[in-house]
Design brief:
The complex is a heterodimer. Chain A has 14 helices and two strands, in the order ααββαααααααααααα. By secondary structure, chain A is mainly alpha-helical. Chain A has a single domain, classed as MetI-like (MetI-like fold, Orthogonal Bundle), CATH 1.10.3720.10. In chain A, strands 1-2 form a two-stranded antiparallel ribbon. In chain A, β1 and β2 form a beta hairpin. By secondary structure, chain B is mostly helical. Chain B has 13 helices and no strands. The radius of gyration of chain B is 24 Å and the shape is globular. Classes of the chains: A mainly alpha, B mainly alpha. The interface between A and B is large, with 121 and 125 residues.
Amino acid sequence: MEAATAPVTRPQGRRRKSVSADKAERRLALYMVSPSMILIALVAIYPIGYAIWLSLHEYSVRVPGLSRWAGPLGLRNYSTALQSSDFWDAFKTTFIFTGASVVLELVVGVAMALAMHSAFKGRGVLRTVVLVPWAVLTVVTAIMWRTIFEPDLGFANTVLRALGLPGAHTVWLGSEPQALLVMIFADVWKTAPFMALLVLAGLQVIPDDIYEAAKVDGSTAWQRFTKITLPLLKPAILVALIFRTLDALRIFDLPFVLTKGAFGTNTLSLYSYQTFQQNRIIGLGAAIAILTFIVVMFVSFIYIRFVGGNIRGLTDEGKA
Amino acid sequence: MSTAQAPAVAVSEPRVRERKRKRRRQGQSPWIWVAVVAIMIFCLFPFYWLINVSLKTGADLSSSSLVPPHPTLKNYKSIFQNDDFTNGLKNSAIVAFSVTILALAVGSFAAYALARLKLRGKFIILGIVLSVTTFPQIAIAAPLFKLWTDINLYNTRIGLIIPYLTFALPLAIYILVSFFREIPKDLEEAALVDGATHFQAFRKVVVPLAAPGLATAGILTFIAAWNEFLLATTLTSSKAARTVPAAIAFFTGSTEFEQPLGTICAASVTISIPLIILVLLFQKRIVAGLTAGAVKG
C-alpha cells in the first residue's frame, strides 16, 4: 500500500498539477477500475462465499425443499468428502496428472524451443505449426486422442500391430494406468508447444555474446546449457510453470471427454461436477469444490512465495 | 524476490538478433532438420488423423488406413443438419463475440487506470485481478449452478457471458496494461497540455495507439471463450444455450445405428477451423500476447 504513493514523489513524474486536478485524476481512475472490480467481486468472489455457505448445508435438488444446516458444526459435507475413497482417488489422480504432465511439458517444451531456436530456416513456419495444438480446443484434443487410441481402428494400435509389438490390442481408455497415460499424453501434446513458445521468447533475449565468450573459455555445449541458458531462462520457465500447474490442477475437460472419469482418471473438478450436477447433491458438491479451491490456492501460494515480486513489475511501482 | 529484476531483460530487438543469428548459422546441422520434421509431425499428425477419420463413412470407418479410401463430406453434411450442432455454433459465436467486446471495453478502462492514472492500492487491485486467474472454475460453477437456477439464468447465453467475462477480464487487463505502458507518455501529456481531460486522452490518443494490444487481447479472449468447457457443461442443459464444445461432448450419432465416430470427428474439425484461421492470420500477435504475460511476468 505504501508503494502506491511512490510514483507521486518520483522525480521524473508527471508535470506538477493542482490538488483538484490530482483529485479528479484519482476519481476517474476509480471510475475506470470499478466496472471490472464489481464484476470480479460479483461473479468470482461472491460465488466463492456462496459456495462455502452451500457446502455447510445439506442441500439436494432430488429432495424438494430439503435445505438445512448440515449436521454438527455444519461440517458434515466436508467429513463425508474427506472420508470417501472417491475423493482421495480423485485427489491422487489430480496430483499424479499435474506432476507428470507439467514435468513432461517442461522437458518437451524446452527441447522444442532449443530446436526452434537453432533452426534458422523454417523457424517462422515452425512457430505457426507449434500454435496448432494450442489452438485446437481441449475438447477436440480429447476427441482426437480418443480416436487415435481407439482399440481396433486407432492409429496407436495400428502402429503396434504393424511393428509386431505387444499390446496391439490394448483398450487404452478402458484400463487402469493406461487411461491416465493417454490423458497425460494428450495434455502434453496440447500444451508443450505453448511452453516451447514461452521458452523460445526467453531464449531470444539472451545475447549471443555470452555464448561466444563461454566458447572461447572452452566450455562444452552442456555446460553452456546448464550454466548460461537455464539460469537465464528461469524467470520465463517459472511463470510458465505456475500457469501450467494451476491449469493442470483444475483439469476437467480431458477426463470428461476421454473416460468420463472412469479407470483412474477422475479428477477433483470432475468429481465435484458429478456430485452437484449429475447427482444433484449440491452441498457435498460445493464442499468438494471448496476443497479443490483450497488445494489450488495452497499450491499457488507456494509458487507466489517464489515469484510474488513479479506482479509488481506490471504497475508503476515496480519500474520505479 | 530476485526474479523481480528479470523483466528488464524481456524487451527484445528481434531484428538485430535475427541478423546475428543469420551470420552464426550459415550451415544448419542435419540434426536440426530431423528435429524440425519431428516437431512438425508431433504437432500436425494428430489433427491430420482427425481429418482423416472425419472423411470416412460406413465400412471405411472400420479400416485404420492413413488416407480415407473413399473420401466423402457426408459427415460434414450430417452435422450441419444436426440442431444441437448448428445451435451450438450459434451460441458459441454469440457468447464468444459478446465476451470479447465487453472484455475489451471494460478491461481497457481498468488497464488504463492501472497503467497510467494515480490510484491508491494499484498493487492490491492487480493482485486481486490476477488471483482470479488462479480460481478453479469448479468453485464458481457449483454456486453459479444453484444461483442461476434460482434467478432463471440457468441455461441462458447471458448466464454464460457473465462468468466468461469475469474470467476473461484478468487476462485482458494484464495484456492491456503491458501494452498501455509501452505507449510514450509524451503523446498523452501533449493532449493534456492542450486541455484534454484524462478520459479524452485515453479515448483519442491511447486507445488508437494501443490497437495492436486490443487486437491481441481480443483474439486471446475470443479463443478462451470459444474453448471454455466446464461452465458450458455445468450451466447449460439444452441447445438453447449450450455452446459447441459442450454440445459435441454430448454428441451421439444422428441415428441410433450410425457409428458417430465420423460425425464427431467432422464436428471437431469444423469447430477448430475458426481458431486455426485466427492462429494463421495473427500468429505474431498471439505469440506476443502470450509471451508478454510470461516473459515480463
